[in-house]
Amino acid sequence: MVRINTKTGEIIEEKEFTGSNPEKQLQTYIEKYLLNILHCHFLKSLYKIPGGEIDTLAITEEGNPCIIEYKHRKEETIINQIVFYYDWLQERSTKYEFERIVKENEATSTIKIDWSKIRLVCIAKEYSKWDISLIKHLDSNIECYSYTYHKNELDIHPDPIINQNKRTRLGQNTTKEVSFEDHRNKADTKGKELLDLLRVEILELGDNVQEGYAPEYIKYYTDTTFLTIHVRKNWLILGLRIKDNKFTDPKGITKDISLRKWTITRELKFKNIDDINYIMSLVKQAYKN
Description:
By secondary structure, the chain is an alpha+beta fold. The chain is 33% helix and 28% strand.
């Protein structure tokens, strides 16, 4: 993929990691910005277990255990590895070990672990035909990301081929419709209060505002989606569809996610009910956009 600097006209060509261990370089970058990229707290790197070594052991902001695996070369398989590590994390003795690691980490010591979901993340340059075939037959919800590396830039985005296969399989096998209450029930009392207040404010933007539900998020749209809400236990992640040249965010609480190639281009967290007026000033810009 070729990128162009719109100010200078310079072509920024895709590069490869150099050195003896490019996979380790990729891992180092991801772990450094783990909270920004995947909303996870870092716990351990290259964590040895019987029969293997987990690249990155982490925990999500919601308290779900997380395993992250990396691959630099296309021909190497990654899916079967992460499934093996998933089985290890399900063992009773392992859960005690993981809980000890979380409590001993200063940044995560107060997080309550939620074992109802284990997050599995793969990050690779490309996925082999074996991985693409295997993912279609697994019930586990494995997140597959591809990366591109340019000069001083690392882009992480959902892999288009694998995620298309997952969507196809989901459409064939899933009949249950998702409702607002399904999303609301993901939150605790504080999270429900944030969601309920925000929902009222959004629906009052105009009679043309409609509400819809995807398995992972709530969406608000007119002719197109201008806002998405991912519900967490006691906060919300908001996604805005906005044009940067017309967008103002004086407090700088949103981040640019346009490189993910989604319709949504900016993202922010809503954690404090006192911020509702400022949050809505951003949402209104997306609505008017």
